[in-house]
Specification:
The protein has 104 residues and is an alpha+beta fold. The protein has one domain: Glutaredoxin (3-Layer(aba) Sandwich). The chain has a 4-stranded mixed β-sheet with strand order 2-1-3-4, covered by helices on one side. The longest helix has 16 residues. It is globular and about 40 Å long.
Length: 104
């Protein structure tokens, strides 16, 4: 089972939970917070040296960070990632726009 290290009120963590739910992936949720310093502990930094959430531990023990990378990993081989190269690039375009746009 994948373990999601998350700050429950984070939108980026929510996106990962949504993709997991849509793909039928069971996840174990572990709450950590940048507010209380739990993402800066040696234990968490061993999982993600940048100290950010979301971070996942995959079934094989490897770690992956950044919400869009995690979502793409979870969605691999499903209808959430278009088969057509152009359509897939358009999906990635949205992910990049969404992640880096500035709120007004």
């Amino acid at each position: 089972m994948i373990t999601l290290y998350e700050q429950p009120d984070s939108g980026n963590c929510y996106k990962v939970r949504l993709v997991a739910a849509h793909t039928g992936r069971q996840i174990k949720r572990v709450s950590v917070s940048s507010r209380d310093g739990s993402t800066r502990t040696p234990e968490f930094l061993a999982r993600n040296p940048i100290g950010k959430v979301p971070t996942v531990e995959l079934e094989d023990g490897r770690f992956l960070a950044e919400s869009n990378a995690i979502m793409l990993h979870l969605a691999e081989g499903t209808s959430l990632i278009p088969a057509d190269a152009y359509d897939r690039a358009k999906a990635y375009e949205w992910l990049f726009f969404e992640q880096y746009r500035r709120s007004a």
